[in-house]
Amino acid sequence: MAQTVPPGQKSVNLDWMMTGPQADFWFPVSPITAEWTGQFYSENTTLGILAWRGQVVESSQGQHPKLLGNIADRNALGGYIRVNDWNQYFIMARGGTFIHVVNGQLMAVYVDDDAESSNNKPGMVGIEIEGTPTKISVRNIWIKKLK
Q1: To 5 degrees, how large is the angle CA 7–CA 9–CA 10?
Q2: Least crowded by CB within 10 Å, which of 55, 66, 103, 104?
Q3: Overall domain count for the chain
Q4: Contact, 21 vs 122, CB < 8 A?
């Protein structure tokens, strides 16, 4: 995948960077301040936010992403995020369809019908933390490859 480098910034070695869709979970000081938790974002591409928490979005080749519907109010969905406790995190990616669930609550859906999009390429699965220094703990990780 070709890397687009904004003027004034250095290119990075993408062999050490995740590229493509990511399901965001930010450290919640409170459920509302974890404003990016529950959204889909396209890491290391020019696509940026794919679907905000509370949205169902579709994109196709040569078209701007289209909001298909709303799941619920973003702030209300933030109330499902547990502070200083374990959160159950479920991500399903099947082809270009991505479903993001936190603690049993659907947060966002993104459907990418563009077969050439970076969102429709096979790749790695990772757990990333960025931003403020904090601790992350994970347990009971299950990955199932669907046929």
Answers
A1: 125
A2: 104
A3: 1
A4: no
Whose CA is closest to 109, among 118, 101, 119? 101
pLDDT of residue 1: 47
Question: Is 7 part of a structural domain of the chain?
Answer: no
The pLDDT tens digits of the residues spanning 84-124 come to: 889 999 999 888 899 999 999 999 999 999 988 888 888 78
Burial pattern 103-142, b for ≥16 Cβ within 10 A else e, equals eebbbbbbbbeeeebbbbeeeeeeeeeeeeeeeeeeeeee
For residue 58, pLDDT over 60 is answered with: yes
Q: Is residue 45 part of a domain?
A: yes
Structure tokens that stand for 10 in this block? 């250095």
Please give the average per-residue pLDDT across 4-23, as a whole number.
Answer: 74
Choice between 110 and 143, residue whose per-residue pLDDT is larger: 110
Q: How far is CA 90 from CA 39, 67, 93, 99, 136, in A?
A: 13, 22, 10, 8, 17
Does residue 41 belong to any structural domain of this protein?
yes
Domain coverage including residue 89:
19-114
Domain assignment present for 11? no
